[in-house]
Specification:
Blueprint: H1 18-40, H2 52-79, H3 89-117, E1 136-143, E2 146-151, E3 157-159, E4 163-165, E5 169-176, E6 181-185, E7 190-194, E8 200-205, E9 210-216, E10 228-234, H4 236-251, H5 254-257, H6 276-280
Helix pairs in contact: 1-2, 2-3
The structure holds copper (II) ion.
Length: 281
């Protein structure tokens, strides 16, 4: 229908403060959504609660999600692009202050969390975040295409499955015999690069008994995708009986393993270098 020729022109200004409405709606939405997300979504974030470090990672990720939630709540209000806000010093200062505060808080929080016990990450040969108290040492050796595990306190036995006692601090020494791999014990919240010639130390404290997944997390050749296994956390009696069984199995190859490298042996060491024929290649 054609407009009335004599109709009054549209009102030139609307007195509603849209900016304030958006801010109030955002505040209300954030106040409702943030606790709901933290309570109901936070605990679903990987890697779970199989270790102290895993639990801490879930806690840290919950915090990050909580801080992100108000940011996500602000997106619907910003979807429809308004006129540019150039030269608005108030908005510019507010933007810089809010984003800087968030980033600096997360950096400080993350650093504090890392320094408690290393958060399950590889810290290189000289770790600075070392948990106190006695620890079970286990060497993790990557090679194309499986991980094996040596236990220096159990006569250097080597196993193709990672078996750990429950409620124990473990000191993992991650290395490789050939190319670069990455040791990822998913539910334990451990991920550490496995490089030849490097002793990469990571710490983890196990909780209750159960199984966990181990995967290689670094593309390491043709069968990288098949470089996975299950590990087990067992109670102390089961660990003792597993260790004595493993010692019996290992006894038959121990003399060969203990030979010097030049004679084809692989005696225990903190690091290994690729075999000479590989080095030459
Ligand atoms: Cu690998």
């Amino acid at each position: 229908m054609a407009a009335e020729p004599n109709a009054a022109p549209a009102r030139p200004s609307d007195t509603t403060n849209h900016g304030m409405r958006v801010v109030v709606a955002w505040l209300v939405l954030s106040a409702i959504a943030t606790p709901l997300v933290a309570i109901f979504v936070g605990h679903l974030i990987p890697p779970g609660n199989a270790s102290t470090q895993g639990t801490e990672q879930v806690f840290d990720n919950t915090w990050m999600l909580g801080i992100l939630t108000p940011v996500i709540c602000a997106v619907p209000g910003a979807v429809v692009d308004g006129p540019p806000l150039r030269n608005d010093s108030q908005i510019q200062v507010l933007w810089i202050v809010i984003t800087s505060t968030m980033v600096l808080f997360l950096a400080g929080f993350g650093t504090y969390e890392l320094l408690q016990n290393g958060a399950g990450g590889g810290q290189g040969p000289n770790p600075i975040a070392v948990p106190t108290g006695p620890k079970l040492q286990v060497q993790v050796i990557g090679q194309q295409w499986q991980f094996t595990y040596r236990y220096p306190s159990l006569g250097n036995i080597e196993s193709n499955q990672l078996v750990l006692p429950a409620d124990t601090d473990v000191e993992l020494h991650v290395t490789s015999l050939d190319v670069i791999h990455s040791f990822w014990a998913y539910e334990l919240g451990v991920k550490a690069d496995a490089n030849p010639g490097t002793d990469n130390v990571a710490f983890v404290r196990t909780k209750g008994t159960g199984t966990f997944h181990v995967r290689c997390a670094e593309l390491c050749g043709l069968w990288h995708g098949y470089m996975y296994n299950n590990g087990r956390v067992v109670d102390s009696a089961q660990f003792k009986s597993w260790a004595s069984q493993a010692k019996k199995i290992y006894a038959s190859i121990k003399p060969y393993m203990d030979k010097p490298e030049a004679q084809g042996g692989a005696p225990f060491g903190h690091t290994y270098l690729p075999a000479p024929e590989r080095r030459a290649g």
